[in-house]
Design a protein that fits this description.
Elements: E1 9-10, E2 14-20, H1 24-29, E3 45-50, E4 56-65, E5 68-74, H2 78-85, E6 95-98, E7 103-108, H3 114-117, E8 125-128, E9 131-136, E10 142-147, H4 158-168, H5 204-212, E11 218-226, E12 237-241, E13 244-248, E14 250-256, E15 262-270, E16 279-281, E17 288-291
Antiparallel strand pairs: 1-7, 2-5, 2-6, 3-4, 4-5, 7-10, 8-9, 9-10, 11-15, 11-17, 12-13, 12-16, 14-15
Protein name: tRNA-modifying protein YgfZ
Domain tRNA-modifying protein YgfZ-like beta-barrel: 216-283
InterPro entries: GcvT/YgfZ_C (IPR029043), YgfZ/GCV_T_CS (IPR017703), YgfZ/GcvT (IPR045179), YgfZ_barrel (IPR048451)
Length: 292
């Protein structure tokens, strides 16, 4: 359902955060789910930041510029997430702050200069002339640009990037769903966003238990269909079984795609639901959704 964009795309609903200081690698190693030793200026990594119970404050995209580590996070959760990340920082030489001297923008299709694409070989990240580029490959090749230059006002709306994130299967953790989901419930294991070989980090025991003892029974899914009303973020949807409608799931994101009331709904559901199961927006009897 994607329509390729020829203009840059606004990322105003996302926030850039910098983690600097001589202990930044060591500190983050004890806080996030991936092995920070694998983070380089040529390798950006997906990760999660969890509470002690293994529930995510947020999911992150981390990258490195020089000695500093940065991550991209949803703006609605950044204040709470940063406060949790700073909790033990007093014991380390590390500074965690929102970035104000760099801007982020999404590039899709013809908005990606060919000379930039050509510089991605075995790497998914590079910095040139103080501008960092991160390549994402799903649902098709697109690029995040991080630059000190001002961003042009002539941008595609944030909803366009959200649509691509939903189609890529990247979980959207906004304020309504923070501290409520294990990383595996959002399929982060399939994005290599969880290391099961590194040492301890906040929430590690519960995340490992979900992986090896089957404690997690849920996964991330994308539903598509029609509805005049979007579901409530953090709420439930309804599915039909034996002729009856029952509530289920946890809605992470919902997006109206066009004026024909076609919508996407990103939802965490119990694994094993039949692929042909009908869904609908809670209380909206005229809506109809199915697995995308």
């Amino acid at each position: 359902m994607s329509i390729l964009s020829i203009k840059p795309i606004s990322l105003a609903d996302w926030q850039l955060v910098k983690v600097s200081g001589t202990d930044n690698h060591k500190y983050l190693q004890g806080q996030v789910t991936i092995d920070i030793d694998n983070l380089t200026e040529q390798t950006a990594l997906f990760a999660a930041h969890c509470d002690p119970q293994g529930k995510m404050w947020s999911n992150l995209l981390l990258f490195q510029r020089g000695q500093d580590i940065y991550y991209i996070v949803r703006k609605s959760v950044v204040e709470k997430q940063m406060a949790a990340l700073k909790k033990y920082a007093v014991f380390s030489k590390v500074n965690i702050e929102p970035v104000t001297d760099l801007n982020i923008v999404g590039l899709d299709s013809q908005a990606i200069p060919s000379e930039i694409l050509a510089k991605f070989t075995d790497n998914n990240c590079f910095t040139e002339n103080n501008v960092t580029y991160i390549k994402l490959t799903s649902p098709h090749v697109r690029v995040i640009k991080i630059t000190p230059e001002a961003i042009d006002d002539d941008l595609e709306p944030c909803s366009r990037w959200l649509q691509l994130e939903l189609e890529a299967g990247y979980a959207i953790i906004d304020a309504e769903n923070t501290e409520s989901l294990l990383p595996q419930a959002c399929n982060l294991q399939y994005l290599n966003a969880i290391s099961f070989d590194k040492g301890c980090y906040c929430g590690q025991e519960m995340v490992a238990r979900a992986q090896y003892r089957g404690a997690n029974k849920r996964g991330l899914y994308l539903l598509a269909g029609k509805s005049a009303v979007l579901p409530v973020i953090g709420g439930t949807i309804e599915y039909q079984i034996d002729g009856n409608w029952r509530e289920s799931g946890q809605v992470l994101a919902a997006l109206k795609l066009n004026q024909d009331n076609e919508i996407y709904v990103q939802v965490v559901l119990a694994n094993g639901i039949d692929f042909n199961t009908p869904f609908r927006v809670k209380g909206e009897i005229d809506s109809a959704l199915s697995f995308h």
